[in-house]
């Protein structure tokens, strides 16, 4: 119960945070109903122009058969081929580059984009870039105004370590594979016999060797999605420490219920920046913050999907394939996301893509605890009343992670179940759903701050 500043109980405000939350519930439900119809129309528009991913069923069967043969013969570690001087130098060069680029979520995200820009057939690298941006945004949420006050400091630290470990481990496994392909292209010959020297699962070699032959981007991407989700399953998702201190905690599930677990792809239109400036309000501190001028306001929609069952390995693989088909198989999503990635450097702040709601500057953020009320009243928030979303390095800095186990995850043929053609989801515009998730976390913040 709120008390009047003079301390007189007779002047207390007759509501608590929970009552306020219930009072706001009809408005939230109204937002949901209005949003669904618009979401359907917007998704239909995004799906109109599709691009073939080039799925090759014959190649998929060939790779599956090779992996089945590997499993039949036993997946115990086999002696690695001896290296000549050239191979030794190549392994050392890639290992050094991986360490250098793996310092933080910021450097990893940039490294993925550089791979894709150099070799656009590496579809997975662009998917990884966009998903890694989301990982950074989720990390900074723990220090942002919506969530920071709903977790104690230890809870924030442990959740950050959980998110950071997953992001770092996937990079540690996948980036050497990308570099090995790029170096093979430079040298004009396949060097995938070196994959074991980077502790890459035997599962991946057939995918890379097939990719070297036919450049089948879709099959390789599906292989990498399956591989990376298996790679983090025991090392992160099912790790007893993180299960005990993060994923089994009530606060973790509470935040998931609000819809914060969403993967969003900001879409930037094709207008040149100078032309876009003419279509933008003359004064916008959030735009200037993003660092690319007023044309930044061209981000008008978000594609993406909600994460409903992060603890399920098959569900994560299905989600990855769905996101891939959306990102690279729908022309509007592909071009919009590529425009955004090229124009907006990743900082970890949600102001990167939504400066009308977020700011990375604490002194310009909303100070009142009634965040939900502000969001219910207007689609955007004015300067000085935006939600605080810090840059990642301001929130956490660089965080080294502990050594990890290196054993091959491939034990049986169950992973082959995921080798199938990716399909884009029917609902792919997540703009309104994402704003609703922001609203729900803000209302949750208000309720907890008021009690």
TrEMBL record:
Source organism of the structure: Paenibacillus segetis
Protein name, per record: DUF2515 domain-containing protein
Database matches in InterPro entries: DUF2515
Classification via Pfam families: DUF2515 (PF10720)
